[in-house]
């Protein structure tokens, strides 16, 4: 079983968490509808771009790591279709008959980025925010709710939760001195940026501070 000693859902009481990794996949397909009336050869050319999510399901285990992925599931998330028609009569008559379309080309393009990880309660299905104890290794996972060992400032949030955690003052504070070093700016300038709101001011740190994610975003801003 995957029952967890450190987690108990405040909503349903379950202590089992499902972990789902979702990667994006795009497939471009071109197919041809032949002309049957003799007007031309190809009645229509269809280009489709099919978006899908490849989901791998696993469980969070008591060592705060994700257990081996058990199942993989592919879910279509969108489909763009464009038809270029050369023979209107045949198209009108036959476009709906899928068996008449002949696939001419198929190209699969996997997403370059890392798969998105979500964690949800197996009992009630609600998504639960989480972060990692180690930023680089994406080490042990801690839950932002109903986890008895969760301490906000010590945990690095999954990237999709950074803004929410900043709003709550949960990100580890970064002093103006440390930010100045990263940004290669004088400390007074960094203090100014925080006061002007160009670097978000930490909401719960006792001293004037910002956070590492804000500094990183500031460094990457378009000039
Ligand atoms: Zn035709
Ligand atoms: Zn629950």
Explain how this protein is built.
By secondary structure, the chain is of the alpha+beta class. Among the domains are: 17-110, no CATH class; 172-223. The protein has helices spanning 88-94, 162-167, 176-183, 187-196, 212-219; strands spanning 17-34, 42-59, 71-85, 102-110, 116-121, 130-132, 141-143, 156-157, 173-174, 210-211. Strands 1, 2, 3, 4 and 5 form a 5-stranded antiparallel β-sheet that branches. It has a 3-stranded antiparallel β-sheet with strand order 7-6-8, with no helix packed on it. It has a two-stranded antiparallel sheet with strand order 9-10. Helix 3 crosses helix 4. The radius of gyration is 26 Å and the shape is flat. The termini are far apart. The mean pLDDT is 94.
Give keywords.
single chain, 223 residues, alpha+beta, five-stranded antiparallel beta sheet, 10 strands, binds zinc ion
Residue fraction in strands:
25-35%
Give Rg in angstroms: 26 Å
The ligands found in this model are: zinc ion
Number of strands: 10
Helix content: 10-25%
Instruction: Catalogue the unreliable spans.
Output: none
- Category from helices, strands and their pairing: alpha+beta
Give, in order, the helices and strands: EEEHEEEEEHEHHEH
The main sheet comes to: 5 strands, antiparallel
Assembly state = single chain
Amino-to-carboxy terminus distance: 52 Å
Query: Count of helical segments?
Result: 5
Overall 3D form? flat
Summed over residues and divided by their number, the pLDDT gives a mean of: 94
């Amino acid at each position: 079983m995957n029952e967890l000693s450190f987690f108990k859902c405040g909503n349903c009481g379950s202590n089992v968490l499902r972990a789902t990794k979702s990667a994006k996949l795009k497939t471009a397909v071109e197919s041809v509808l032949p002309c049957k009336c003799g007007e031309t050869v190809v009645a229509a050319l269809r280009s489709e771009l099919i978006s899908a999510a490849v989901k791998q399901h696993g469980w969070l285990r008591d060592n705060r790591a994700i257990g081996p992925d058990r199942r993989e599931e592919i879910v279509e998330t969108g489909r763009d279709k464009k038809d270029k028609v050369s023979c209107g009569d045949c198209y009108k008559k036959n476009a709906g008959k899928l068996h008449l379309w002949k696939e001419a080309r198929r190209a699969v393009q996997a997403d370059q980025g890392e798969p998105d990880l979500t964690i949800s309660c197996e009992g009630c299905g609600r998504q639960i925010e989480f972060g990692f104890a180690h930023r680089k290794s994406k080490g042990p996972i801690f839950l932002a709710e109903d986890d008895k060992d969760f301490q906000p400032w010590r945990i690095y949030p999954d990237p999709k939760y950074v803004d929410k955690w900043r709003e709550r003052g949960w990100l580890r504070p970064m002093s103006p001195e440390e930010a100045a070093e990263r940004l290669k700016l004088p400390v007074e300038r960094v203090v100014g940026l925080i006061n002007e709101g160009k670097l978000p001011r930490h909401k719960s740190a006792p001293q004037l501070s910002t956070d590492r994610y804000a500094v990183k975003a500031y460094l990457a801003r378009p000039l």
